Fold:
Amino acid sequence: MLKEIQVTGQKDTRSGFGDGIVEAARKNPNVVALTADLAGSMKLNQFMKEFPERYVQVGIAEANMMGIAAGLTIGGKIPYTTTFANFSTGRVYDQIRQSIAYSGKNVKICASHAGLTLGEDGATHQILEDIGLMKMLPGMTVIVPCDYNQTKAATIAVAEYVGPVYLRFGRPSWPIFTAADQKFEIGKAQFFSEGKDVSIFACGHMVWKAIEAGRILEDKGLSVEVVNIHTIKPLDTEAILRSIRKTRCAVTVEEHNIIGGLGDAIAQTAAKSFPIPIEYIGTNDTFGESGTPTQLLKKYGLDTQNIVEAAHKVIARKG
Amino acid sequence: MPALKDIATQIRRDIVRMVHGCASGHPGGSLGCTEYFTALYFKIMQHNPQFSMEARNEDVFILSNGHISPVFYSTLARSGYFDVKELATFRKIDSRLQGHPATHEHLPGIRIASGSLGQGMSVALGVALSKKLNGENNIVYSLHGDGELDEGQNWEAIMFAAHHKVDNLIATVDWNGQQIDGPTDKVMALGDLGAKFAAFGWDVMHLEKGNDIDAVVAGLEAAKARTGKGKPVVILMKTVMGAGVDFMEGHHEWHGIAPNDEQLAKALAQLPETIGDY
Structure:
Protein backbone atom coordinates (compact mmCIF):
# COMPACT_ATOMS: atom_id res chain seq x y z
CA MET A 1 0.00 0.00 0.00
CA LEU A 2 1.22 3.45 -0.89
CA LYS A 3 0.22 4.75 2.56
CA GLU A 4 3.01 2.71 4.10
CA ILE A 5 5.73 4.61 2.25
CA GLN A 6 7.57 6.73 4.80
CA VAL A 7 8.97 10.19 4.14
CA THR A 8 12.27 10.33 5.97
CA GLY A 9 13.25 13.90 5.21
CA GLN A 10 13.36 16.71 2.67
CA LYS A 11 16.35 17.55 0.50
CA ASP A 12 17.24 18.63 -3.01
CA THR A 13 18.26 15.89 -5.42
CA ARG A 14 21.32 17.88 -6.50
CA SER A 15 22.69 17.44 -2.97
CA GLY A 16 22.31 13.71 -3.51
CA PHE A 17 24.55 14.18 -6.54
CA GLY A 18 27.08 16.25 -4.58
CA ASP A 19 27.28 13.64 -1.82
CA GLY A 20 27.27 10.76 -4.30
CA ILE A 21 30.19 12.00 -6.36
CA VAL A 22 32.33 12.28 -3.21
CA GLU A 23 31.65 8.62 -2.44
CA ALA A 24 32.27 7.61 -6.04
CA ALA A 25 35.60 9.47 -5.95
CA ARG A 26 36.61 7.83 -2.67
CA LYS A 27 35.99 4.43 -4.23
CA ASN A 28 37.51 5.11 -7.64
CA PRO A 29 40.66 7.23 -8.15
CA ASN A 30 39.72 7.85 -11.79
CA VAL A 31 36.61 9.89 -11.00
CA VAL A 32 37.10 13.52 -12.08
CA ALA A 33 34.61 16.40 -11.73
CA LEU A 34 34.32 19.24 -14.24
CA THR A 35 32.16 22.30 -13.90
CA ALA A 36 31.27 25.30 -16.04
CA ASP A 37 31.24 27.93 -13.30
CA LEU A 38 28.52 26.25 -11.25
CA ALA A 39 30.45 24.32 -8.61
CA GLY A 40 28.33 25.74 -5.79
CA SER A 41 24.97 25.12 -7.43
CA MET A 42 26.09 21.60 -8.32
CA LYS A 43 27.07 20.96 -4.68
CA LEU A 44 30.70 20.15 -5.46
CA ASN A 45 32.12 21.84 -2.34
CA GLN A 46 33.08 18.66 -0.53
CA PHE A 47 34.52 17.11 -3.69
CA MET A 48 36.69 20.19 -4.26
CA LYS A 49 37.93 20.02 -0.69
CA GLU A 50 38.77 16.32 -0.75
CA PHE A 51 39.97 15.97 -4.34
CA PRO A 52 41.31 19.34 -5.52
CA GLU A 53 43.60 17.72 -8.10
CA ARG A 54 40.63 15.89 -9.65
CA TYR A 55 38.47 18.99 -9.97
CA VAL A 56 38.51 20.97 -13.23
CA GLN A 57 37.01 24.45 -13.45
CA VAL A 58 36.24 25.15 -17.12
CA GLY A 59 34.60 28.55 -16.81
CA ILE A 60 31.38 29.35 -18.65
CA ALA A 61 32.31 27.20 -21.63
CA GLU A 62 30.14 24.10 -21.76
CA ALA A 63 31.16 23.01 -25.26
CA ASN A 64 34.80 22.96 -24.18
CA MET A 65 33.83 21.06 -21.02
CA MET A 66 32.22 18.25 -23.04
CA GLY A 67 35.27 17.93 -25.28
CA ILE A 68 37.69 17.93 -22.35
CA ALA A 69 35.60 15.24 -20.67
CA ALA A 70 35.77 13.11 -23.83
CA GLY A 71 39.55 13.55 -23.90
CA LEU A 72 39.92 12.63 -20.24
CA THR A 73 38.29 9.26 -20.89
CA ILE A 74 41.02 8.45 -23.42
CA GLY A 75 43.48 8.57 -20.52
CA GLY A 76 41.26 6.24 -18.47
CA LYS A 77 39.48 8.87 -16.38
CA ILE A 78 35.77 8.85 -15.48
CA PRO A 79 34.73 12.47 -15.94
CA TYR A 80 31.49 13.83 -14.49
CA THR A 81 30.48 17.07 -16.23
CA THR A 82 28.34 19.33 -14.11
CA THR A 83 26.09 22.22 -15.02
CA PHE A 84 22.36 22.95 -15.37
CA ALA A 85 20.31 20.61 -17.58
CA ASN A 86 19.79 23.21 -20.29
CA PHE A 87 23.51 23.85 -20.64
CA SER A 88 24.26 20.12 -20.31
CA THR A 89 22.22 19.12 -23.34
CA GLY A 90 20.71 21.55 -25.83
CA ARG A 91 23.60 23.98 -25.67
CA VAL A 92 26.17 21.27 -26.38
CA TYR A 93 24.22 18.71 -28.36
CA ASP A 94 26.71 18.34 -31.19
CA GLN A 95 29.68 18.08 -28.82
CA ILE A 96 27.89 15.28 -26.97
CA ARG A 97 26.80 13.63 -30.20
CA GLN A 98 30.22 13.50 -31.87
CA SER A 99 32.84 13.58 -29.13
CA ILE A 100 30.95 11.53 -26.51
CA ALA A 101 28.09 9.39 -27.89
CA TYR A 102 29.41 8.51 -31.37
CA SER A 103 32.90 8.15 -29.93
CA GLY A 104 31.55 5.85 -27.18
CA LYS A 105 33.21 7.81 -24.37
CA ASN A 106 32.72 7.04 -20.69
CA VAL A 107 31.45 10.50 -19.72
CA LYS A 108 28.80 11.08 -17.04
CA ILE A 109 26.77 14.16 -17.99
CA CYS A 110 25.28 15.35 -14.70
CA ALA A 111 22.52 17.90 -15.00
CA SER A 112 20.75 19.81 -12.27
CA HIS A 113 17.92 22.38 -12.37
CA ALA A 114 15.95 20.30 -14.87
CA GLY A 115 12.29 20.92 -15.55
CA LEU A 116 9.72 23.38 -14.22
CA THR A 117 10.72 22.97 -10.56
CA LEU A 118 13.78 25.13 -11.21
CA GLY A 119 11.21 27.84 -10.61
CA GLU A 120 11.83 31.56 -10.75
CA ASP A 121 14.64 31.62 -13.33
CA GLY A 122 12.03 30.93 -15.99
CA ALA A 123 11.95 29.26 -19.39
CA THR A 124 15.54 30.01 -20.48
CA HIS A 125 16.74 27.66 -17.76
CA GLN A 126 13.80 25.25 -17.45
CA ILE A 127 14.65 22.74 -20.11
CA LEU A 128 11.74 20.41 -20.85
CA GLU A 129 13.27 18.72 -23.88
CA ASP A 130 16.48 17.23 -22.48
CA ILE A 131 15.26 13.66 -21.91
CA GLY A 132 14.16 13.50 -25.53
CA LEU A 133 17.42 14.96 -26.81
CA MET A 134 19.51 12.54 -24.81
CA LYS A 135 17.48 9.37 -25.34
CA MET A 136 17.68 9.83 -29.10
CA LEU A 137 21.46 9.51 -29.05
CA PRO A 138 22.56 5.94 -29.82
CA GLY A 139 24.28 4.33 -26.83
CA MET A 140 23.30 7.02 -24.33
CA THR A 141 21.92 5.85 -20.97
CA VAL A 142 19.33 8.25 -19.50
CA ILE A 143 18.68 8.25 -15.75
CA VAL A 144 16.19 10.42 -13.83
CA PRO A 145 16.26 9.48 -10.12
CA CYS A 146 13.36 10.42 -7.85
CA ASP A 147 14.78 11.74 -4.57
CA TYR A 148 17.96 12.61 -2.66
CA ASN A 149 18.82 9.02 -1.71
CA GLN A 150 18.24 7.65 -5.17
CA THR A 151 20.23 10.44 -6.85
CA LYS A 152 23.13 9.72 -4.53
CA ALA A 153 22.94 5.99 -5.25
CA ALA A 154 22.69 6.58 -9.00
CA THR A 155 25.68 8.94 -8.94
CA ILE A 156 27.75 6.21 -7.31
CA ALA A 157 26.41 3.48 -9.63
CA VAL A 158 27.22 5.25 -12.90
CA ALA A 159 30.94 5.22 -12.09
CA GLU A 160 30.85 1.42 -12.28
CA TYR A 161 29.04 1.42 -15.62
CA VAL A 162 31.20 1.92 -18.73
CA GLY A 163 29.58 4.20 -21.31
CA PRO A 164 28.01 7.63 -21.68
CA VAL A 165 25.28 8.50 -19.17
CA TYR A 166 22.90 11.43 -18.83
CA LEU A 167 21.95 11.86 -15.16
CA ARG A 168 19.12 14.35 -14.58
CA PHE A 169 18.14 15.87 -11.24
CA GLY A 170 16.90 19.13 -9.79
CA ARG A 171 16.94 22.11 -7.53
CA PRO A 172 13.97 22.11 -5.12
CA SER A 173 13.85 20.53 -1.69
CA TRP A 174 11.78 17.36 -2.19
CA PRO A 175 10.50 14.50 -0.02
CA ILE A 176 12.93 11.64 0.61
CA PHE A 177 11.12 8.30 0.44
CA THR A 178 13.57 5.73 -0.92
CA ALA A 179 16.10 3.82 1.19
CA ALA A 180 19.39 5.44 2.16
CA ASP A 181 21.26 2.18 1.62
CA GLN A 182 19.71 1.28 -1.73
CA LYS A 183 21.76 -0.24 -4.52
CA PHE A 184 20.89 1.55 -7.73
CA GLU A 185 20.29 -0.78 -10.64
CA ILE A 186 20.50 0.96 -14.02
CA GLY A 187 17.58 -0.07 -16.22
CA LYS A 188 15.48 -1.71 -13.52
CA ALA A 189 12.06 -0.24 -12.81
CA GLN A 190 11.11 0.26 -9.16
CA PHE A 191 7.62 -0.76 -8.01
CA PHE A 192 6.14 1.24 -5.12
CA SER A 193 2.88 -0.68 -5.15
CA GLU A 194 1.16 -3.57 -6.85
CA GLY A 195 -2.25 -2.92 -8.40
CA LYS A 196 -4.65 -4.10 -11.04
CA ASP A 197 -6.71 -1.05 -12.06
CA VAL A 198 -4.09 1.36 -13.43
CA SER A 199 -0.34 1.65 -13.86
CA ILE A 200 1.24 5.01 -13.11
CA PHE A 201 4.71 5.32 -14.62
CA ALA A 202 6.69 8.30 -13.38
CA CYS A 203 10.26 9.60 -13.21
CA GLY A 204 12.19 12.19 -11.19
CA HIS A 205 10.32 14.55 -8.89
CA MET A 206 7.04 13.31 -10.34
CA VAL A 207 7.39 9.92 -8.66
CA TRP A 208 6.42 11.52 -5.36
CA LYS A 209 3.43 13.21 -7.03
CA ALA A 210 2.43 9.82 -8.46
CA ILE A 211 2.56 8.28 -4.99
CA GLU A 212 0.40 11.11 -3.61
CA ALA A 213 -2.10 10.58 -6.44
CA GLY A 214 -2.02 6.81 -5.89
CA ARG A 215 -2.92 7.28 -2.22
CA ILE A 216 -5.97 9.34 -3.18
CA LEU A 217 -7.00 6.69 -5.70
CA GLU A 218 -6.50 3.91 -3.14
CA ASP A 219 -8.77 5.81 -0.74
CA LYS A 220 -11.44 5.58 -3.43
CA GLY A 221 -10.98 1.84 -3.52
CA LEU A 222 -8.85 1.59 -6.63
CA SER A 223 -5.89 -0.73 -6.97
CA VAL A 224 -2.94 1.29 -8.30
CA GLU A 225 0.51 0.26 -9.46
CA VAL A 226 3.02 3.11 -9.07
CA VAL A 227 6.23 2.41 -10.98
CA ASN A 228 9.38 4.53 -10.91
CA ILE A 229 10.99 4.46 -14.35
CA HIS A 230 14.25 6.04 -13.15
CA THR A 231 16.03 4.76 -16.24
CA ILE A 232 14.38 6.04 -19.39
CA LYS A 233 17.00 4.31 -21.50
CA PRO A 234 17.55 1.40 -21.53
CA LEU A 235 13.88 1.06 -20.70
CA ASP A 236 12.71 -1.82 -18.51
CA THR A 237 10.21 -3.02 -21.11
CA GLU A 238 9.75 -6.34 -19.38
CA ALA A 239 8.52 -4.66 -16.16
CA ILE A 240 6.35 -2.22 -18.09
CA LEU A 241 4.65 -4.97 -20.07
CA ARG A 242 4.18 -7.08 -16.94
CA SER A 243 2.40 -4.14 -15.32
CA ILE A 244 0.16 -3.12 -18.22
CA ARG A 245 -0.83 -6.69 -19.05
CA LYS A 246 -2.37 -6.69 -15.60
CA THR A 247 -3.78 -3.14 -15.38
CA ARG A 248 -4.61 -2.69 -19.10
CA CYS A 249 -4.16 1.10 -18.89
CA ALA A 250 -1.50 3.60 -17.87
CA VAL A 251 -0.75 7.17 -16.86
CA THR A 252 2.74 8.53 -17.54
CA VAL A 253 4.08 11.40 -15.43
CA GLU A 254 7.17 13.47 -16.16
CA GLU A 255 8.54 16.96 -15.66
CA HIS A 256 9.23 17.20 -19.37
CA ASN A 257 7.50 17.79 -22.67
CA ILE A 258 5.16 14.87 -23.40
CA ILE A 259 6.64 14.95 -26.91
CA GLY A 260 9.80 12.90 -26.70
CA GLY A 261 9.95 11.97 -23.04
CA LEU A 262 9.02 9.08 -20.76
CA GLY A 263 5.43 8.93 -22.02
CA ASP A 264 6.56 8.42 -25.60
CA ALA A 265 8.88 5.64 -24.52
CA ILE A 266 6.11 3.83 -22.63
CA ALA A 267 3.65 4.31 -25.49
CA GLN A 268 6.11 2.85 -27.98
CA THR A 269 6.59 -0.20 -25.79
CA ALA A 270 2.84 -0.66 -25.42
CA ALA A 271 2.07 -0.05 -29.09
CA LYS A 272 4.57 -2.70 -30.14
CA SER A 273 3.52 -5.44 -27.74
CA PHE A 274 0.32 -4.71 -25.83
CA PRO A 275 -1.68 -1.65 -26.96
CA ILE A 276 -3.60 0.03 -24.12
CA PRO A 277 -5.13 3.45 -23.41
CA ILE A 278 -2.55 5.90 -22.01
CA GLU A 279 -2.92 9.39 -20.53
CA TYR A 280 0.09 11.69 -20.44
CA ILE A 281 1.02 14.09 -17.64
CA GLY A 282 3.78 16.51 -18.59
CA THR A 283 4.17 19.83 -20.31
CA ASN A 284 2.44 19.87 -23.68
CA ASP A 285 4.61 21.43 -26.39
CA THR A 286 5.21 24.58 -24.40
CA PHE A 287 7.98 26.53 -22.66
CA GLY A 288 7.78 27.21 -18.94
CA GLU A 289 7.87 30.56 -17.13
CA SER A 290 8.83 32.16 -13.81
CA GLY A 291 7.04 31.15 -10.61
CA THR A 292 7.47 28.92 -7.60
CA PRO A 293 7.78 25.18 -8.30
CA THR A 294 4.37 24.54 -6.74
CA GLN A 295 2.68 27.26 -8.80
CA LEU A 296 4.32 26.02 -11.98
CA LEU A 297 3.41 22.36 -11.50
CA LYS A 298 -0.18 23.45 -10.91
CA LYS A 299 -0.35 25.84 -13.87
CA TYR A 300 1.15 23.33 -16.33
CA GLY A 301 -1.02 20.42 -15.19
CA LEU A 302 1.60 18.37 -13.35
CA ASP A 303 0.02 18.39 -9.93
CA THR A 304 -1.25 15.48 -7.86
CA GLN A 305 -4.86 16.22 -8.78
CA ASN A 306 -4.03 16.13 -12.50
CA ILE A 307 -2.66 12.61 -12.06
CA VAL A 308 -5.78 11.53 -10.17
CA GLU A 309 -8.02 12.85 -12.95
CA ALA A 310 -5.89 11.26 -15.65
CA ALA A 311 -6.15 7.91 -13.84
CA HIS A 312 -9.95 8.08 -13.69
CA LYS A 313 -10.08 9.04 -17.34
CA VAL A 314 -7.81 6.26 -18.52
CA ILE A 315 -9.63 3.64 -16.44
CA ALA A 316 -12.89 4.76 -18.06
CA ARG A 317 -11.27 4.45 -21.49
CA LYS A 318 -10.57 0.77 -20.89
CA GLY A 319 -14.26 0.19 -21.60
CA MET B 1 63.03 2.84 -42.88
CA PRO B 2 62.59 4.64 -46.22
CA ALA B 3 63.41 8.34 -46.36
CA LEU B 4 60.68 10.60 -44.97
CA LYS B 5 60.39 12.31 -48.34
CA ASP B 6 59.62 9.00 -50.02
CA ILE B 7 57.07 8.10 -47.38
CA ALA B 8 55.37 11.45 -47.93
CA THR B 9 55.23 10.86 -51.68
CA GLN B 10 53.65 7.44 -51.17
CA ILE B 11 51.10 8.91 -48.77
CA ARG B 12 50.21 11.50 -51.40
CA ARG B 13 49.68 8.70 -53.93
CA ASP B 14 47.46 6.93 -51.41
CA ILE B 15 45.43 10.09 -50.85
CA VAL B 16 44.59 10.75 -54.49
CA ARG B 17 43.94 7.06 -55.16
CA MET B 18 41.65 6.72 -52.13
CA VAL B 19 39.65 9.79 -53.00
CA HIS B 20 39.42 8.74 -56.63
CA GLY B 21 38.41 5.21 -55.59
CA CYS B 22 35.20 6.38 -53.95
CA ALA B 23 34.74 9.53 -56.03
CA SER B 24 34.49 11.63 -52.88
CA GLY B 25 36.54 12.97 -49.98
CA HIS B 26 38.94 15.81 -49.27
CA PRO B 27 42.26 15.77 -51.12
CA GLY B 28 43.24 19.45 -50.71
CA GLY B 29 43.89 19.65 -46.98
CA SER B 30 45.16 16.06 -46.92
CA LEU B 31 47.91 16.81 -49.43
CA GLY B 32 48.76 20.05 -47.65
CA CYS B 33 49.32 18.27 -44.33
CA THR B 34 51.25 15.27 -45.66
CA GLU B 35 54.63 16.46 -44.37
CA TYR B 36 53.15 17.14 -40.93
CA PHE B 37 51.70 13.63 -40.64
CA THR B 38 54.85 12.01 -42.00
CA ALA B 39 57.08 13.88 -39.57
CA LEU B 40 54.78 13.18 -36.64
CA TYR B 41 54.28 9.45 -37.12
CA PHE B 42 57.65 8.48 -38.59
CA LYS B 43 59.96 10.74 -36.60
CA ILE B 44 58.53 12.82 -33.79
CA MET B 45 55.95 10.89 -31.81
CA GLN B 46 56.58 8.12 -29.35
CA HIS B 47 53.74 5.78 -30.29
CA ASN B 48 52.86 2.13 -30.57
CA PRO B 49 51.02 0.77 -33.64
CA GLN B 50 49.82 -2.07 -31.37
CA PHE B 51 46.96 0.25 -30.64
CA SER B 52 45.51 0.81 -27.19
CA MET B 53 42.92 3.52 -26.59
CA GLU B 54 44.52 4.67 -23.33
CA ALA B 55 47.98 5.17 -24.87
CA ARG B 56 49.81 4.77 -21.56
CA ASN B 57 53.28 6.34 -21.77
CA GLU B 58 52.72 7.20 -25.42
CA ASP B 59 52.35 10.52 -27.16
CA VAL B 60 48.86 11.07 -28.57
CA PHE B 61 47.67 12.76 -31.75
CA ILE B 62 44.18 14.23 -32.03
CA LEU B 63 42.87 15.32 -35.44
CA SER B 64 40.32 18.10 -35.18
CA ASN B 65 39.71 18.82 -38.88
CA GLY B 66 38.46 15.30 -39.54
CA HIS B 67 37.75 15.82 -43.22
CA ILE B 68 41.43 15.32 -44.00
CA SER B 69 40.92 11.66 -43.08
CA PRO B 70 42.72 10.36 -46.22
CA VAL B 71 46.12 11.56 -44.99
CA PHE B 72 45.37 10.28 -41.47
CA TYR B 73 44.32 6.82 -42.68
CA SER B 74 47.25 6.46 -45.06
CA THR B 75 49.71 7.54 -42.37
CA LEU B 76 48.25 5.10 -39.84
CA ALA B 77 48.35 2.22 -42.31
CA ARG B 78 51.85 3.06 -43.50
CA SER B 79 53.08 3.15 -39.90
CA GLY B 80 51.61 -0.26 -39.13
CA TYR B 81 48.30 0.36 -37.38
CA PHE B 82 46.40 -1.69 -39.99
CA ASP B 83 46.95 -3.32 -43.36
CA VAL B 84 47.47 -0.85 -46.21
CA LYS B 85 45.06 -2.94 -48.32
CA GLU B 86 42.25 -1.60 -46.17
CA LEU B 87 42.83 1.88 -47.64
CA ALA B 88 40.90 0.63 -50.69
CA THR B 89 37.72 0.52 -48.58
CA PHE B 90 37.77 4.26 -47.79
CA ARG B 91 34.24 5.71 -47.68
CA LYS B 92 32.71 2.45 -48.89
CA ILE B 93 29.96 0.41 -47.25
CA ASP B 94 31.01 -1.77 -44.26
CA SER B 95 34.40 -0.04 -44.00
CA ARG B 96 36.28 0.97 -40.87
CA LEU B 97 37.57 3.93 -42.88
CA GLN B 98 34.55 6.20 -42.54
CA GLY B 99 34.32 9.46 -44.48
CA HIS B 100 35.38 11.23 -41.30
CA PRO B 101 37.44 9.46 -38.63
CA ALA B 102 35.46 7.49 -36.06
CA THR B 103 36.10 5.14 -33.16
CA HIS B 104 32.76 3.45 -33.77
CA GLU B 105 34.18 0.82 -36.17
CA HIS B 106 37.28 0.38 -33.98
CA LEU B 107 39.87 1.39 -36.54
CA PRO B 108 43.25 1.20 -34.76
CA GLY B 109 44.83 4.61 -34.30
CA ILE B 110 41.62 6.64 -34.00
CA ARG B 111 40.80 7.86 -30.49
CA ILE B 112 37.95 10.30 -31.16
CA ALA B 113 35.44 11.03 -33.90
CA SER B 114 35.90 14.30 -35.75
CA GLY B 115 34.19 15.93 -38.68
CA SER B 116 31.89 18.42 -37.05
CA LEU B 117 34.54 21.10 -36.64
CA GLY B 118 36.04 22.88 -33.66
CA GLN B 119 35.95 20.08 -31.11
CA GLY B 120 39.44 18.59 -31.29
CA MET B 121 41.32 21.09 -29.17
CA SER B 122 39.01 20.47 -26.23
CA VAL B 123 39.51 16.73 -26.62
CA ALA B 124 43.29 17.16 -26.86
CA LEU B 125 43.18 19.21 -23.65
CA GLY B 126 41.32 16.41 -21.90
CA VAL B 127 43.95 13.89 -23.01
CA ALA B 128 46.72 16.26 -21.90
CA LEU B 129 45.09 16.65 -18.47
CA SER B 130 44.74 12.89 -18.13
CA LYS B 131 48.46 12.51 -18.90
CA LYS B 132 49.25 14.94 -16.09
CA LEU B 133 46.87 13.18 -13.68
CA ASN B 134 48.46 9.83 -14.55
CA GLY B 135 51.94 11.25 -14.07
CA GLU B 136 52.86 10.49 -17.69
CA ASN B 137 55.53 12.57 -19.30
CA ASN B 138 54.12 12.54 -22.82
CA ILE B 139 53.05 15.12 -25.34
CA VAL B 140 49.65 15.53 -26.96
CA TYR B 141 49.66 16.82 -30.54
CA SER B 142 46.61 18.24 -32.24
CA LEU B 143 45.92 19.52 -35.74
CA HIS B 144 43.36 22.15 -36.70
CA GLY B 145 42.29 23.74 -39.95
CA ASP B 146 42.61 27.50 -40.19
CA GLY B 147 39.01 27.89 -41.33
CA GLU B 148 38.05 25.70 -38.40
CA LEU B 149 39.12 28.49 -36.04
CA ASP B 150 35.85 30.23 -36.99
CA GLU B 151 34.23 27.85 -34.48
CA GLY B 152 33.93 29.49 -31.07
CA GLN B 153 34.68 26.33 -29.10
CA ASN B 154 38.32 26.66 -30.17
CA TRP B 155 38.60 29.96 -28.35
CA GLU B 156 37.08 28.47 -25.21
CA ALA B 157 39.76 25.80 -25.42
CA ILE B 158 42.54 28.28 -26.20
CA MET B 159 41.58 30.30 -23.12
CA PHE B 160 41.39 27.19 -20.93
CA ALA B 161 44.78 25.85 -22.06
CA ALA B 162 46.64 28.96 -20.95
CA HIS B 163 44.69 29.38 -17.71
CA HIS B 164 45.36 25.78 -16.67
CA LYS B 165 48.97 25.87 -17.96
CA VAL B 166 48.49 22.84 -20.19
CA ASP B 167 52.12 22.75 -21.32
CA ASN B 168 52.13 19.18 -22.63
CA LEU B 169 50.09 20.16 -25.69
CA ILE B 170 51.40 21.17 -29.11
CA ALA B 171 48.53 22.39 -31.28
CA THR B 172 49.24 22.98 -34.95
CA VAL B 173 47.13 25.15 -37.24
CA ASP B 174 47.17 24.21 -40.91
CA TRP B 175 47.32 27.75 -42.23
CA ASN B 176 46.63 27.28 -45.94
CA GLY B 177 44.40 30.34 -46.17
CA GLN B 178 41.57 28.41 -47.82
CA GLN B 179 38.18 27.20 -46.72
CA ILE B 180 35.21 25.75 -48.59
CA ASP B 181 33.67 28.97 -49.81
CA GLY B 182 36.97 30.66 -50.69
CA PRO B 183 40.06 32.26 -49.18
CA THR B 184 39.85 32.66 -45.40
CA ASP B 185 40.48 36.39 -45.86
CA LYS B 186 37.19 36.66 -47.75
CA VAL B 187 35.08 34.15 -45.80
CA MET B 188 36.15 35.12 -42.27
CA ALA B 189 39.48 36.86 -41.90
CA LEU B 190 41.74 35.33 -39.26
CA GLY B 191 43.75 38.51 -38.80
CA ASP B 192 47.02 38.25 -36.94
CA LEU B 193 46.68 34.69 -35.66
CA GLY B 194 50.06 34.79 -33.93
CA ALA B 195 49.10 37.88 -31.96
CA LYS B 196 45.77 36.33 -31.08
CA PHE B 197 47.29 33.16 -29.66
CA ALA B 198 49.96 35.20 -27.87
CA ALA B 199 47.30 37.45 -26.34
CA PHE B 200 45.55 34.33 -25.08
CA GLY B 201 48.76 33.29 -23.31
CA TRP B 202 50.22 30.71 -25.69
CA ASP B 203 53.81 30.15 -26.78
CA VAL B 204 53.53 30.85 -30.53
CA MET B 205 55.78 29.36 -33.20
CA HIS B 206 55.69 30.12 -36.91
CA LEU B 207 56.53 27.40 -39.40
CA GLU B 208 56.74 29.02 -42.83
CA LYS B 209 57.56 25.91 -44.88
CA GLY B 210 54.87 23.41 -43.91
CA ASN B 211 55.47 21.38 -47.06
CA ASP B 212 59.21 21.01 -46.57
CA ILE B 213 59.76 17.80 -44.62
CA ASP B 214 63.04 18.94 -43.03
CA ALA B 215 61.49 22.22 -41.94
CA VAL B 216 58.48 20.43 -40.44
CA VAL B 217 60.66 17.97 -38.52
CA ALA B 218 62.81 20.85 -37.23
CA GLY B 219 59.69 22.85 -36.29
CA LEU B 220 58.15 19.97 -34.36
CA GLU B 221 61.46 19.23 -32.62
CA ALA B 222 61.72 22.87 -31.59
CA ALA B 223 58.13 22.83 -30.34
CA LYS B 224 58.85 19.73 -28.26
CA ALA B 225 61.71 21.56 -26.58
CA ARG B 226 59.29 24.32 -25.61
CA THR B 227 56.82 22.05 -23.79
CA GLY B 228 56.85 21.77 -20.00
CA LYS B 229 57.39 25.48 -19.48
CA GLY B 230 53.98 26.50 -18.22
CA LYS B 231 52.45 27.44 -21.56
CA PRO B 232 50.62 25.57 -24.31
CA VAL B 233 52.51 25.65 -27.61
CA VAL B 234 50.98 26.45 -30.99
CA ILE B 235 52.63 26.04 -34.38
CA LEU B 236 51.16 28.25 -37.08
CA MET B 237 52.10 26.14 -40.07
CA LYS B 238 51.89 27.65 -43.53
CA THR B 239 50.96 25.02 -46.10
CA VAL B 240 49.64 24.92 -49.63
CA MET B 241 46.30 23.26 -50.11
CA GLY B 242 46.75 20.41 -52.60
CA ALA B 243 50.57 20.45 -52.27
CA GLY B 244 52.34 17.96 -54.55
CA VAL B 245 49.73 17.93 -57.31
CA ASP B 246 50.25 21.03 -59.45
CA PHE B 247 46.71 21.53 -60.68
CA MET B 248 45.32 21.29 -57.13
CA GLU B 249 47.84 23.57 -55.45
CA GLY B 250 46.34 26.66 -53.86
CA HIS B 251 42.81 26.08 -55.14
CA HIS B 252 40.05 25.95 -52.53
CA GLU B 253 37.93 24.12 -55.11
CA TRP B 254 40.00 21.03 -54.28
CA HIS B 255 38.93 21.14 -50.63
CA GLY B 256 36.30 18.48 -51.09
CA ILE B 257 36.17 17.01 -54.60
CA ALA B 258 37.72 13.91 -56.10
CA PRO B 259 39.81 13.74 -59.27
CA ASN B 260 38.37 11.98 -62.32
CA ASP B 261 40.31 9.25 -64.17
CA GLU B 262 42.26 11.69 -66.27
CA GLN B 263 43.11 13.94 -63.34
CA LEU B 264 44.17 10.92 -61.30
CA ALA B 265 46.61 9.84 -64.02
CA LYS B 266 47.99 13.37 -64.16
CA ALA B 267 48.39 13.48 -60.38
CA LEU B 268 50.06 10.08 -60.13
CA ALA B 269 52.52 11.02 -62.86
CA GLN B 270 53.78 13.71 -60.49
CA LEU B 271 53.96 11.27 -57.55
CA PRO B 272 56.13 8.27 -58.38
CA GLU B 273 55.46 5.08 -56.40
CA THR B 274 58.10 4.78 -53.67
CA ILE B 275 57.27 2.14 -51.10
CA GLY B 276 54.51 0.32 -52.97
CA ASP B 277 50.86 1.04 -53.69
CA TYR B 278 48.14 -0.61 -51.63
Notes: The mean pLDDT of chain A is 98.
